[in-house]
Amino acid sequence: MPSYTAPVKDMQFVLHDVLKVSAQTVPGYDELEANFTSAVLDEAGKIASEVLQPLNVVGDKEGCKLENGVVRTPTGFKAAFDQMKEGGWTALDCNPEYGGQGMPYVLAVAVGEQFTAANMAFNMYQGLTHGAYSAIHAHGTDAQKATYLPKMVSCDWTGTMNLTEPHCGTDLGLMRTKAAPQNDGSYKISGQKIFISAGEHDMSDNIIHLVLAKIEGGPEGIKGVSLFIVPKFIVKEDGSLGERNGVSVGSIEEKMGIHGNSTCVMNYDEATGYLLGTEHKGMRAMFTMMNEARIGVGLQGYAQAEAAYQNAVIYANDRLQGRDVTGAKNPDGPADPLIVHPDIRRNLMDQKSFIEGARAFTFWGANMIDQHVRADDDAAHGIVSLITPVIKGFLTDKGFEYATAAQQVYGGHGYIEEWGMSQFARDARITQIYEGANGVQALDLVGRKLAQDGGKHVMAFFEIVKSFIKENSGNEEYEKSFLDPLKAASKDLQAAGMYFMQNGMKNPNHALAGSYDFMHMFGHVCLGLMWAKMGKAAMDALENGASDTAFYETKIATGKYYMARQLPATGMHLARIESGADTVMALDAASF
Amino acid sequence: MPSYTAPVKDMQFVLHDVLKVSAQTVPGYDELEANFTSAVLDEAGKIASEVLQPLNVVGDKEGCKLENGVVRTPTGFKAAFDQMKEGGWTALDCNPEYGGQGMPYVLAVAVGEQFTAANMAFNMYQGLTHGAYSAIHAHGTDAQKATYLPKMVSCDWTGTMNLTEPHCGTDLGLMRTKAAPQNDGSYKISGQKIFISAGEHDMSDNIIHLVLAKIEGGPEGIKGVSLFIVPKFIVKEDGSLGERNGVSVGSIEEKMGIHGNSTCVMNYDEATGYLLGTEHKGMRAMFTMMNEARIGVGLQGYAQAEAAYQNAVIYANDRLQGRDVTGAKNPDGPADPLIVHPDIRRNLMDQKSFIEGARAFTFWGANMIDQHVRADDDAAHGIVSLITPVIKGFLTDKGFEYATAAQQVYGGHGYIEEWGMSQFARDARITQIYEGANGVQALDLVGRKLAQDGGKHVMAFFEIVKSFIKENSGNEEYEKSFLDPLKAASKDLQAAGMYFMQNGMKNPNHALAGSYDFMHMFGHVCLGLMWAKMGKAAMDALENGASDTAFYETKIATGKYYMARQLPATGMHLARIESGADTVMALDAASF
Asked: Which end is more exposed in chain A, N or C (fewer Cβ atoms within 10 Å of the end residue's Cβ)?
């Protein structure tokens, strides 16, 4: 049975040594002293390890059951959910006006990594509620906020997002769900939505569905889409729950993973809905949820890899098999532990160097969201907007890759469900698909974000890399191990961008055929930048006489691994990109 | 529900245009005229599509059930197995002396790809029997052959291989299963074996277990391991079945995939066993099975990718979502099919170019096995021995990667079990693990095969590549698209080999830390060679006035894709290898 230990020290390193959060002039960040963040992270870590993680396998095995219109979550989920609510863990960064704790987003992200690594399917109930909270908070009327937010902050009511229909996922312009205006200003919503995570369950008193639908008589396609609040139970004027609304669960999907989360087909049959935001501007409002969700999904990707990695390390130290070719390490035992073997280390170092880079990248992004939201930093917003598809696409592709790599360490036992490693891979797999499949993230990055505001944000990104290299040059060993590889990778990325500019004008397919590789290159450069930052921070700590030298030396060694063994992928991606669209588009559809 | 159509034309292309099997002077190959192979492959294809494929989802959903010591296979498996037996499909390449059809191995492999793509879990029952047949055929006494082979050829009795124990997989020297010699020359076998595919089931009258065990008083470790025939029912002198032997199923494992195959814990309690081959030389005898099994597993890897790919193509042509950025392709419909989008094509071309290259690679290997076994060609044997770990490791890693890539084309539907795409990924996953996890294949390649016979085989391999390039130079377009990339990739591979030679002497970890990357590089060079061969064959066919120009032009275009977009991976692998072992081995075991 797998275990999970919150990597609090690694998180503290990113928050304090690398990002130096408490020194930043972002409102609320002055609270983020190391003793405060460690207290929060330790406490969250206990819940993750002791409450959520033991339910992970239970959720996978039992799944959710639909009986007479009621969805039963797995044994223990409700009690754990109540415990999360009571501890205030559902609302760390929510607005205190509605009962939240008002902490910076970056801290909520760190805690979210722990809960997600411990039990991804479980944490989605709260995560989706947070997304719906954010959309109502950003776009709701004062009355809507007063009605829904306090109960959503406390998770007495949970939330969902309803986009997909059987015939339309990415292309929401094809949507058929209708909204018929009523005399009292409300709408009657009718249609079917699929893949609705946490669409129905037994852990909250009410469920607040945010539903995309077309108002009758509005514009065709995506321009006619609006967003609606559709509560499971109508909320009466006094805030109490009234009658059951015309929304019901049609079925629960049987999925490859995240069995503990109920993925529902939701049927809307003249359900009462309330317009959220402006009519026909539903996509804008929904994107408030989606951008947050995309960062959350990127986090899910690497968090599953982290949980899988921790167990792979335990197994590699325990399992005796073969001998170290350079001499026995466990001469009195029948064999040496797996971890002596170079290829096992290669595998574990791939995982470790990715996961720690991914964490720094995600926290860096969360920090910029705080800079934008709390300190009106538009430049930070520009970078976040640029890197959101990279966080989502790259971290989930690699997260799945490394969750399976961790499973591989177990050999045959990795394939047996009882050992729990298969679940990490199966759960991680969805992160590459939902909230916009990763191909759509690549399209968003190359087709939209690169050129946004005249390419301002990508230029700002390259400037960040360039300045960092310039400011930190001078130490030969550090330059060779960290800065030179980063410089080379960044040059590859710029060359790819240049290729798109020069060839994408003539034929956009030359850019789009390389979009997926570009997303991966971009991810590598971001993680390379993070490792350069972490390597520098670790060197500084050692220079300043930090006592835990082994910890910082491990950071430097892990960073060197990433730079030497992962960053060279940019060259391959560049070669693929520069081969253009011709070989990609050569075949007739019938020739595949 | 997925479908499967046997790619007979693609197989014919490899057999006749590329390998030119019927023109080879290998005994039995003169029968392999195109009209004969197409008749066999068409007939097998019908069984694959109509009998086996429809049972694939059934097997996944129902799994195998253990009730009172009896294992029930999924609904329909027994009837399909009987149909296979009646058609003689279980013994295509078996020795006619024992009832086999005596066809070349290369044809059996082509048929095996079809059956495996249609239903991997099902085909394993027959595949393991074939492996056990081969071991007894190679190492058994005449009496053993006469007793067991006819019934195994007909699959009235099936076979298994029993290696793994709870505490030992790769390191079989740790084995605890004991063999106590009896006065009549037999042995009493006692111990527990795990992960025994097809260990117990209801489709055959008897099960012939091949079991590794240590004869009491023999040498320590791997040198004391012998191989035994342990039938489920003792076979009487007249060939009829006698009493139940002391072997029983302890439990069936719950696995991530291949649910239709019963993976058993087998308990041996003083079971009667008969020595197969020489005492204490069990590993040598077992390797007869393992080498065959490893090629079979490589085939499973790309066959799952093929089945998944076929369905991804159907979905990409059916599913309407978004518009071609260069102009609507389905202007009268609400949207264009997915296949218009460059990133969908990038994904499908990755899959297609890999699968077809993998098929050619596997058939090429099978052809060399025939050259060795039927025409005593030692050079061919040397190459097969070298590439066996590459076929196993590279084709299964990529097979899994592309099975999940095909799943990705389905978006959210790919994650829902009902659509069947998850099964391809879950089934393919085991191929990376069993018959020696892929890290062990890499170790076998770099630690053993490279230096075998003074490096003769790897030098012969490079000579094959070099000669091919030399003999086929002259056409500028072909050189640029095919030969130059192959030359560059082959150069990378040689540079890696050189790095191992120069640095592995000082410290073997410098070679072993790069073994996995080397295996992947080697795979790419092999597939590059195959595509160069296929490109040339297609050009020749067009020059010779072949009527189906679209087919051959598609081959050339697909080959160009592989050369431009897949082969550049060798540069990345070389960079990883040349970074050496230092970053890989830097950490203490406690620092992971």
From this structure: N
